[in-house]
Amino acid sequence: MAWAVLGEVPEGGSLSNIEAEDEEIRVLRAKLQPVRERLGDQVADLLLDLSQFHKREDKPAYWAIFDRLAQESEELLDDLECIQGLEAVSEPAQVTKQSFERTYRFPQQETKLRAGKSPCLKPAAVPEDVNLRSINHDTNTLVLRRSIAKGPLPDRLDLLPPRPLRNSVLKDAIVAVTEEIIANTGRVSAIEDMLTRSRPRFVDGLRSPGVISGGGDLSVETSRAIAAMADSTLAIQGPPGTGKTYVSALSIVDLVRAGKRVAVSSNSHKAIGNLLKAVADRARAEGMNCRLVQKTSDDGEDDPYPGIVFVSDNDAPEIASAHVVGATAWHFARYSDAAFDYLVVDEAGQVSLANILAMARSSRNIVLVGDPMQLPQPLQGSHPGDSGRSCLEYLIDGHRVVPTDRGIFIPVSRRMHPRVCGFISTAVYEGRLRSDDAARSQTLVSRTGIDLVGAGMRAVTHAGRSQVSPEEIQAIVARIAEVVGATYRDRDGRERVIGNADILVVAPYNAQVNALRSALPGAVRVGTVDRFQGQEAPICLVSMTTSSGEELPRDISFLFSLNRINVAVSRAQAAAMVFASPLLLETSCRTIEEMSLVNALCILREYGGDSF
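User: That's the sequence. What structure does it adopt?
Assistant: Structure tokens below.
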């Protein structure tokens, strides 16, 4: 029943789900008293809030499903989260002993649903999912698969958004880890260090004034610091293009050489795979035997890679014998004791505190690699206190650069020319980020001999624009015409002529992205900033789109997000230009934080000039 998911009281019911949750929280609050006395109120309250994290994350998705269940079918036609008006064109066909498939036709419509998803069915009394096996937009047909045990599929139906991922294993792990902390067993010291924001501990004691001396090769020093950890947590912050993956792979290979087992995790299989590939490459180059296993989903879409074994079973025997295992929190939350010496979390600026807590029993040490000044973790629910923060954001605690006694900051960008890096360093990283000599050697010269290297803002006058700006699109089209044909020399001294594929165009809203795609050549990469994290190009053009603070479709913190501006501009190797209405610089600010956000655009204008 709906009330069981959403906390509503059924007719005639004696106890609502809300009341049950309140009782659960009351009991846990009492049990946390020893933690409150030992680690402080902040940690006890945080554990209480984290115990309900996944429930809060699920509720908006369930509300959205139930809202659509209550709508008429015709109202779903323009809903991008749905597919409306399915009519069966075949009888059910049994494809396995447990399942059957059926083909449907649907009216022409746009949708975000893709093959491999598990959308919910309408009509249905409660959210019930089905597997979307394939979809063909040319013929407007799709194939659904369902368990025979669930009964036949109706002749007519609609598809609604999928239910949230089943996360009971994460919830149960959080309960178990919290019990360990309450009992003070000493088996989860690393997560306690993180929750208390303690300085990392090493076998040679606390290090002062910093985790590393900074006098030698940073990669080597970082690897040595990781190897010397003593059941603790260490943060490694790497701004764009600084080689986080290189440092992580080197450190992991060194750990394996020393006889350690390493777990690698992140929010996505892709991020995990990228790091494992770097580890496999380095181990191969050093002639070292390193058994790597990646636990993936069972969709079979993982491309083979030399040195990596892919498994889809959590209990696959290859996992137990591997030196390095890569998997999401859903796998590592299953461990009841420390099967690994280290848990290395990539893109930790996007991994929730709750998921780190769930994985805490799997490893003796936790290494958080990422950058809280890049894109934040995606959240659906609203979370109290610190419980909605990413693990790295929480650990760094408001600092733009990790304090030297808490972690390691990688200060050298191998991507950005100094005239691009200078803005990013000033606006985001307290002036501590710099380019290496090879990045400094990059050049970009137009067909007429003009030096195009640098970052700046180009003022584009318009008014009344919210999520689409034809004026900025026109300006970007003109800029692309200016830069195509320019000569680019990369960090290795190789020269080439700039083509459309060497240009990234970033916009904040999907409507502006779609309009830009229609106006620009297909080879130009266009998208929101979320699409481009981790990518790079000689030239990056950014459209701010909105005319002024009066037309903001969302709050100031979205359009002016320092994290998003950082990621957008830092894609550029040689040249970045932000197109914006001058009226945006006059946006009214109500808080110091909002002033700081708007100030980043002002810094860019001063840095590169508005006629750059």
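The chain has 22 helices and 25 strands.
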